[in-house]
Amino acid sequence: QVRLVESGGGLVQPGGSLRLSCVASGGILALYLMGWYRQNPGKQRELVATITGTSTDYQDSVKGRFTISRDNAKNTVYLQMNSLKPEDTAVYYCNARTSVMDAWGQGTQVTVSS
What we know:
Elements: E1 3-7, E2 10-12, E3 18-25, E4 33-39, E5 46-52, E6 55-58, E7 66-71, E8 76-81, E9 90-97, E10 102-104, E11 108-112
Parallel strand pairs: 2-11
Antiparallel strand pairs: 1-3, 3-8, 4-5, 4-9, 5-6, 7-8, 9-10, 9-11
């Protein structure tokens, strides 16, 4: 089973930037549909961005501000987050998926506040 470990979260002021990283072990990240999700207490987990091959897709609220990318040599997927807003505050989770697997990381907290 693939193991995912996120990092890069923290406290940032509105308008600031963060880059989240998700390192995969026990599997080959290049073979998976990779995604970033986020969740706040009492709310459903929501999809932020996905990447498969070189194709990417984004939630409307983050288009133009967030960029998902992958480095297959490092078995790592990134989420570059710019122009952050307070409503981006959440725990961000990395996901790796195939037709027979659905793996999640432990999450990393992102807090956007002045």
